[in-house]
Structures are given as structure tokens and as C-alpha cells.
Amino acid sequence: MTMRIGIVILSMLVLAGCGKRDDGTQASESGNPAPAMLESATEAVEAVAAAVPTKLGDPAYPLVGLNWVKGEPVTITPGRVYVVEFWATWCPPCRDSIPHLTQLQAKYGDRVVFVGVSNEDVATVKPFVTGKGDQMAYTVAVDAAGKVAEGYMKAFGQRGIPAAFVVDAEGRVVWLGHPMGDLETVLDRVLAGTYTISG
Q1: Three-state DSSP class for residue 151
Q2: Which pTM value belongs to this model?
Q3: 81 and 23 together in one domain
Q4: Suppose 142 and one of 67, 70, 71, 157 were both cysteines; which one would form an S-S bond, judging by CB atoms 3.0 to 4.6 Å apart?
């Protein structure tokens, strides 16, 4: 996280130093960014840091920087419910969860968007997903850079997979757990508007 913020700051300072002011002059004669540009860079860094959830009820981390191997790219938007599940091809409990997630996707249809995220490479995940065919009937993506995993797994202190996160219609992470656990009950309550965040 600290490294990511440092990279963002460095990138913004480089861009700010190359920019021009509204009056068309360089940011400063010395080549250093103007104070207003530094403020903008700081605000952008704060926005990135604020985007990483730290507790249930916080806004969900965006599904960015992913390689989509099955289904269309997914953007978390208000008004829809999402399940973001972290898994791997080598993980037996993850493979056991696939039929259950497929059944839930069929049950909820377009009311809930299921996204399986693996941190393996596309060359490993794509043939596995293709081989599953309709047995894995939900969206699948690869998070090779690990940014989305940081925004969910690391942010919530989760080390084991499979791990599922429910994002409610307000775009908040409201539940996390094993996909074979209480996921279906939680989704029913989230969709009915009766789910209360606990923990």
C-alpha cells in the first residue's frame, strides 16, 4: 500500500513538473511543480488511499487492471449487488466452490453479478475456465498485478482462498466469508434490504 502511494505521488509529481499553468508558463522556472499542482497530487493520493476499504460498510475497491477471461468487464456501480470471489486453479476447495457459485449465478440472474478473481496468469486460468464450460457460468478475471486482491483480501486481512466478498447496491462491502458458507442467505437478505452489517 505504501509503495503504491509512493508510485502514485512520484507519477503525479513528474506529470505536474511537465505541465503548464493556466497562463501558459511552465510550472516554475526551476522545473519544480507549482504549489497548486502539489495540492492536486496530494488530493489524488488521498483519494486512492481512501478507495481501499478497511472495514465492512466501506466502499468496495474497483475492479480495475484485470484481464477478463470469461464474460464482459465488470464495473461496480450503485444499484446492483456483486460477489467478488478470490480463487485459484490449484486450490481444491476453490474448485469445489465453482458449481455452487454457478448455481447461485443462475438463481439470482442479473440481480447479482458474480466475479471470480485469480492472481495466476492468463495462460493458466483461461484453459482451466474454458475446460469448465457451463460448469463455471459466471464472469472470471485474472489479477496478475494483485491490485484488486490488495483492495479486498489484504485490506480485510484474508489469507486463505476461496474467499467471497458481497458488495451491496450502495457499493459497500457488507460481508466476507467462504463461498460455501452463508453466502446464499446473505444475498437473499441483501436483495430484500434486510441485511445488517455485523463484525
Answers
A1: helix
A2: 0.75
A3: no
A4: 67
